[in-house]
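Write out a sequence, fold above all:
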Amino acid sequence: MGPLSDKLAGHDVALVLGAPVFRYYPYVAGPYLPPGLRLLHISDDPAAATGDSDGVLSAAQVFTALNELRPDHAVLVEESPSNLPDLHTAWPVTEADTFYTFASGGLGWDLPAAVGIALAERDSGRSRPVIAVIGDGSFQYSVQSIWTAARLRLPMLIVVVQNSEYAILKSFARLEQAPGVPGLDVPGLDIVSIARGYGCDAARVADLDTLKQAVTAAWTKQVPTVLEIPISGQVPPLV
């Protein structure tokens, strides 16, 4: 919080249009606002335009398509921290108890949490569809939980956005001025084969038309559907 507060020192009014504000991922000590500053905030426009990169889907395009196709009252479970601003822009949360995420830490919690929520939805009789969105880096921590989902025959949708890197940790490396941290590129992962090995239905999707078909078909199956979607990479600033 401190670095932004320092930049705003000496000003009377801050006006924020069309962007999240103070959505810090790492903790940096300091006040949110300097003394004497008044903040006026107009929230994001969910219809903001999105683009692509060299024919590869952007995270924003994927999330926009998912929001358009999701069934009514769908529950979103998220762990794709480097793409979170795009997710909130494309998929505004307007219904209570339909969005689950974590504040900090607990790496890999998305998959087991989503499986537990899907099981609770079935056992409670509410039967709301569950969609888990997770990065390919986060996917590695608790991948075995999809075996449970397959064994319990939970018809949930798991979307793995693949940028072949652990982008959020690269952001932390920049924040800590530690460039070149090894092990943050994760090329060559075959998420489709892994998911099928655990008993899920799985496919690799590289365009919006195929994505729409796969999402629609997911709710007709009796096992989880895992979609591996290559996206353009980005290493977002944390502060």
